[in-house]
Amino acid sequence: MATETAQAAGEDTFPKLLLRNAVKFADRPAIREKDLGIWQTWTWSQVLDEVRAFAVGLSALGIKAGDKVAIVGDNRPRLYWTMCAAQSLGAVPIPVYQDSVAEEMKFVLEHAGATCAVVENQEQVDKILEIRESYKAIKTIVYDEDRGLKNYNVKGLYAFEDVQAKGRAALSDGAEAIWHEQIARGQPADTAIILYTSGTTGKPKGVVLTMENTLWAARVANRFDNLTENEETIAYLPMAWVGDHIFSYAQSYECGYCVNCPESPETVVDDRREIGTTYAFAPPRVYENLITLTMVRMEDAARIKRKMFDYFLALANRVGEKILNGEPVGVTDRLLYALGDFLVYAPIKNRFGLSKVRVGYTAGEAIGPEIFRFYRSLGINLKQLYGQTEAAVYITNQPDGEIYADTVGAPLEGIEVKVDDSGEVLYRSPGVFKEYYKNAKATRETKTKDGWVHSGDAGFIDDRGHLKIIDRAKDVGHLKDGTLFPPKYIENKLKFFPNIKEAVAIGDGRDYVACMVNIDLTAVGSWAERNNVVYASYQELAAHPDVYKMVEGHVAEVNRELAAEERVAGAQIQRFLVLHKELDADDGEITRTAKVRRSFVEERYKPLIDALFNRRKSSQHIKTEVTFEDGRKGAIEGDVEIRDMTPMPVAGTNRIAAE
Amino acid sequence: MGEILHGIFINPFIEIAGAPDLFVQVLWEGFVSGTLYALIALGFVLIFKASGVFNFAQGIMVVFGALSLVGLFAAGVPAWLALILCIGIMFGLAWGVERVVLRNLVNQEPIILFMATIGLNYFLIGFGEFIFGGEPKTMITSEIGLPTGSFDFEVLGGLVSLQQIDVSAAVIAGLLVAGLAVFFNKTRIGRALRAVADDHQAAMSVGITLQQIWVIVWFAAGIVALTTGIMWGARSDVSFALSIVALKALPVLILGGFTSVPGAIVGGLIIGISEKLAEFYWGPLVGGSIESWFPYFLALIFLWFRPQGLFGERIIERV
Amino acid sequence: MLYRETGQFKTSYSADQAVFPIRQDLVGIWLILAFMFLVVPFTFNDFWLNSIMIPTLIFALAAIGLNILTGYAGQLSLGTGGFMGCGAYACLKLTTFFPDLNIIIVILMSGFFAAAVGFIFGLPSLRIKGFYLAVATLASQFFLEWAFGRIAWLYNYADSGAIEVPTRRIFDIAITGPHASSMTRYLVVLSIVVVLTWVASNLVRGRFGRSWMAVRDMDIAAELIGIRLLSTKLTAFSISSYYCGVAGAMMVFLWLGAAEVESFDINHSFLVLFMVIIGGLGSLLGAFLGAAFIWNLPILLRSAFGQTIDAASVEHISFMVVGALIIFFLIVEPHGFARMWQIAKEKLRLWPFPY
Amino acid sequence: MSALETFVDAADETLLAVEGVTLSFGGVQAIKDVSFDIKKGEIRAIIGPNGAGKTSMLNVINGFYHPQKGKITFKGNTRTDMRPHVAATQGISRTFQNVALFRGMSTLDNIMTGRTLKMTTNLFWHLFRFGPAEQEELEHREFVERIIDFLEIQHIRKTPVGRLPYGLQKRVELGRALAAQPDLLLLDEPMAGMNLEEKEDMSRFVIDVNDQFGTTIALIEHDMGVVMDLSNRVVVLDHGEKIADGTPDEVKSNQDVIDAYLGVAH
Hints:
The structure holds 4 protein chains of 4 kinds. Chain C is mainly α. Chain C has helices at residues 13-16, 23-43, 46-72, 80-97, 103-122, 130-150, 182-205, 207-217, 219-224, 229-256, 266-279, 284-305, 311-332, 336-350; strands at 163-164, 168-170, 173-176, 258-259. In chain C, helix 4 (80-97) packs across helix 5 and helix 4 packs across helix 10. In chain D, 47% of the residues are buried. Chain D has 2 domains: 1-91 and 182-266, Rossmann fold; 105-181, no CATH class. In chain D, the strands form 2 sheets. In chain D, strands 6-7-8-3-9-10 form a 6-stranded mixed beta sheet, with helices on both faces. In chain D, strands 2-1-4-5 form a 4-stranded antiparallel beta sheet, covered by helices on one side.
């Protein structure tokens, strides 16, 4: 019903919301960017001015309703404005992952039928020009940063400010009224955006979300956490990812909060600290990295400091979460926690720029329960949500006061969730996408006639009404003897160790579970430095006997945990190896959002996997082709050692259920 | 105006012509203080050459040496034994300086080392006064076998008086320099010391550590300081006021260059003689006591024309 | 640990370039100022004001002066005592000629005479560098000492050969002379020092400060990017001497009440140089820390040993201790207290992480 | 590359002409009767074996050394020698073979120092950092920030340069030279001691500077590959004498150069 009132007030599209915000929050900051050393700020009324000029300019360049406008680049104000500008003309913005190579990008552009691209800089312009050689439909290219582009003599290439100048000229000739009419014509059912999901298999699919979808999601989420125009968020995740689109665009437009763009990808942590975000959103990987960073740095701290740190972390682990949840805690513990807050918790939060966080979310992938608890025990209100691009993010969220590390929360108001017989989770809501662009077959496969969407995830709803996700539906497997084998569950346990960056567990249809591990070069490198272990490359470090010994310890620890849980006790890791190279997005081994492409990896490292399941082999030679940053190809080869593990005895019967 | 110019440029010569014996006497006085300046500068050059340290405490080492000698004697130690003990003290000082200061400040910027020697300077003042008391003392000149009294000469119609102690000062200074020259040129350690100024590696190849060299150099400088202290003390009192006078070693060094032993000697004599002449002939024009600043101005004027000093090489700046 | 910087972001260059860009620092400095202005004058007794607060502040100002020259512009000077004397004698002459002129203005004006003298003795710095330059400043030191003692006009032909400070009033409150209360003099000194410190911080943060540091760090490169060496060095000499001059004037008029040549001798030059080195070259904060340390250490020693040993011995011990401490600090942290504070602050900002 | 070609066409105006310059120290002749010119907008390389007099040549151009014979014409003004800061005022700035940064200052302050020439507000305003002084500082800060942005060194903006790795120091030094908005930029072995990646970065910056600001660049470089890629024209010195002058291709095939340089130095 919130939606209905809003529609009545004419707030049913983003351009209309912009017009509202420019009045309602006229002098409040809408977006900031750290540029030239300071935070440049635009208020909502200034944003309106910028968007209007650019939209009218685009219009003058011939962009019209129904056109597709590709957006490529890091998170920058002008690229966000482009979204709204395109929408105001009835065109559809298509954000594209900025680090995709030309070939990947070409697929998206061609599939979407983009005729215009608004890009960040020379690097992207070059890519688009390369694509244009074979895909000639791109008529207009607009760039934000002119560096290196001064002498490009290319047809249809414009600087952002030149397009705006065109727009401003047209505005003074009365184009404003036309623009407002165009906005007024916008309907909730209009396509707001097409987001291409990177997809763990196959070619990307374009998820078509309407204005109504995204706006509904934004409203629900804003109400759910009582967000106001006073929030500060930082936009640092790819603009092509649905999370960023909803958090940094839709929700901001809906409730008027300020979005901050970092100076460069390297300075995000510093920039986040400067801004002091109040509403945070990050995939588990970011949180994992912060913990890794914390632990690695503390390893180098003085002994007394480390002791103090460990003591207070243990204390936080014991009582921190209870205090956050408002449960009863003894006076001594409360006092100690307060001391810990002064000495450890608050400073850590300060270093990571999380001091002011009111609500923080993690999503995209299951977060290790230990990682999740770590943040909550420090007093950060970190919550999990379960979402998908197809749902305009939101499916379930953890409500305050009902945070359980092992669930992803309850369905939000207006969302229905059910689990079918095969164990797959299905959902239905007003945020559910319209279709896969130009892919009716996939749409049919995913979305039922009555609006239910197959999530592709296996899970169940527990007696508290919360959803639990075990794994990708198709990834949960069974060993030959029928024992349950949830790979991600095992991998996440491994990945909690700062030394382990990535893990791939294999066991479906096999005799036992085996595992391939990527060490974390930062953490292990720092360990190597302290222990005078000399190494020249990742490969050399990974093969070091001491490193193996360390990983062996971690695997044994995971086995111990698995052994304690009846349902997965049989899925203990019996053999493992440390991979000779890092899994890399450039090689297609992980996605741009850093998810492992399981089938691809299994194919690529077949010799290693075969050896893992051949008890007689204690090492295996392998040669792997790699792609360097600049696109050149090369190969890494060497022998990879395989270690056997002795499974832990399965503990007594009365066990805590698997988390 | 004319009067002033006359006072500066003409009158002195009239006076010299009028009383040549006075002129010779002044020259002699200048020569003797010059010798002492030269000796202080010499100790300084030794250290600077070998360790690059601008040793501000050289002046205090002079006082400290003399004070130890007088103090030990006053405490009942026989003069000859006191002298030997003093040499031991100077060695201890050199060893201590290397141990405490130099070793810990190796590779620091020159100004830091310079500051450290000022700290050493203060420490020695406090230490010396604490042990031996702050009041001025008389040097035990005759007890250690130095002559007193004077030679009087009839020169150019007047009487020139040379204190015997001054004469022996000059002689001993000469012997000291000669001894050092022999030490540096003829002995193995001496050659190593010379090498260290150019190349630390070369020095170490002779089989002496850098630390040892520092001790030796500071000890050598300490011996020079002790000698200077005895001579100076015999002429006036032994007191820490001398440390201010010792600053005159600076203009001497400017003239002679920081690394040149002959430069130190020549520079010392120039400064000594010129300041006495200036004081005697120009001082009265402005109320006297100009020898407190005259050497510095002289050095400044000199520097303006030859920034690298008398014996220094021309500096070619590179980028 | 105490620094919580989350949420402190700058939207303008002036905010980014502020003296205290971190809010906690800004709050801290205001608290200190409030304490100095509102608490100290009314709670500290005469001994504290006269023997500790006033001289510490005055020497801090002199140390700022020397720091501008040596710490920022890299020109070693041993002539601080002389420049302080210039200020003091100029102040005496000015207040003799203009007895009705506001004494604070007189004190501030007397610095200009020191600046002029500093300018002249800075001229050789064009050709002379490093330790050689120290000789030029020694020349000024000894020449000025000589002049202060020999030229009777400078001390108004007083029989004692010393400066005798006349009583001067503002709004009928005695500021100088025997009738001035410690509190009044403290407040005047504090105000002047605070204002001049602020001015110094403006200078060192801006074009002039950068040029000085450029000349200090690499004079050839500085010249090749268009910095005029002579004028840069001469500004440093003049401004440095101005500060020393004002400090000297305050020393005589607002603290000692009378002074002879010995008040400006070479030992004072060294004293201030120690303050600068121990405090930290190239840091205004260091000037205060160094002055507080070097000035108060002997007082502390005296009160520690005062009862058991005679005064002379305490004097000697304090010499030893100061000397030893200088060496100690140079070994521990050659860049002085300011660097220690900087490191500590850095640690506090990074806490609990070591980096 | 297309960018470069446009400039070669456009550049025909002589920015700097060196005529018959001879320089010696004591008895050693560093440069013997060398003449060449630099055209507006081009990248001009000066190459030659060690001790060929390349750095001395740069030192003569920016007034640090005073030649015994010969004259230099810059922007139409002919001179035999001048003070370095005068050269800077006229629009010549440079970087150094061994990084000559102000080690005690931050990246930002180092580059700000490069703008000293453009700052005119007098001492009085600076005392109170008020009015014009504050205004000036802020304006120049913004300009400097553009350079920082251009050179991609935002993350080290406030780091003391002494703590930076060599490659970044070189970049900061380039920034300091650029801050003066020179007409002629002299780069003394900008890529010496760098790894391949850093060299590529630096080459890109050199091209971008030339491209973006139209700055004329004279460059000493050892790496022949870099020289061939970057420069429009090359002058080759050997033992203080000019032995060749022309486009990279011409120079590469010149027999004297092959004998004197390629055969000897590498």
